[in-house]
Amino acid sequence: MSKTKSLIPLKTLFVSYHASNTILISFLPLYLQSRGLSGTQIGWVLAVESLAAILAQPFWGFLSDKFKTIKRILFICLIGLLIFGFTFFQMSSLHTILIFGAVFYFFAAPIGGLNDSFAQRRATQLGISFGSIRMWGSVGFALSSLLVGEVLARFGIGYMVWVYLAFGTIALLTLIPLKDVKADTKPVKFNDIGKIIKSKPFLLFLGVILFITITHRMNDYYMALYISELGGSENLVGLAWFAGVISEAAVFALAAFWFKKFHSLIFIIIAAIIYTVRWFLYASAMDPMMIIGLQFLHGLTFGVFYTAAFDYVTRLIPSFLQSTGHLVFFSVYFGLSGIIGSLAGGSLVDVFGGSSMYTLMGILSAIGTVLLITYHIAYYRRDLTAPGSE
What we know:
Elements: H1 3-6, H2 8-34, H3 39-66, H4 71-88, H5 94-108, H6 110-126, H7 130-155, H8 160-175, H9 194-197, H10 200-229, H11 234-253, H12 255-258, H13 264-283, H14 288-294, H15 297-316, H16 322-351, H17 354-379
């Protein structure tokens, strides 16, 4: 079987899962707002999502490494996503939304990280770039954001649940013919996690990128509300995400050409600088079309930053703990950052408005950029996995 044909199930899984994830990232705040929740209350719901992610991702990653399978863990998580996703969207009071949201996200949150870990291992086996597989997630995200935005603008935000469950079902069905990846045969014990926790470069790196990833998560959660604040509708939210994720897909698709030119940390720093500029430009926006026009920067920020950061942490993690390490990285990138970003962003939007939130995001990104440069100077020469460095 050719490389292209062997990757069709995995690429389809990326398209369908990220198409469903688009709905949560792009439209969940608007859905919760339609249920009568304030910006601060929406922040609490999103913080529960992130807290569940912090707990769930290392848990499912460890099980994946211990039992030497990603496919079976993904299957369990997707079943949980469908069952508890349906339940979560039926809730109306804040306390039931929080409770069932936590259970739902315990299953839903690890899927993206497990998919990426799967893709990283398969790409290594086939000798191709991780980005050439990961780009299909961006394609699914882009197409879904455009389609779902139009559907919700026409029929109402209440239809969001059915579109979400439809994409989730497709992801589950796509997983069935997918061939599992071969994992490292070394046995994994619970105390092996200490090898990750004791890695000073790994922990410091996660701490430094928090300044950037918090701002990324704030934008994920509150760009829709900012566009609404500027006078935009659901279809403009979908268009904004479509514009951003198309640029992200292009960055992933071309990763084989640009990625190995310099050390991963160089690309991370460049993306951090662009993040800083991006947020200050968003803060100055006067109408929603300006946000849509600036969304091409999403690829140059998240696309570059995530690809380079994922590669860097992969080289810091022992091979037999790849899934665990990747999901620890995910729990910080999307979990811890999400808690801080959702709570801080919700309060800022309520009290000061979206422009002030984006100004603070620009300041945080600038601080993170300086810290990344310092980290690079301190650890570049101590990177023992030099292949791929300049």
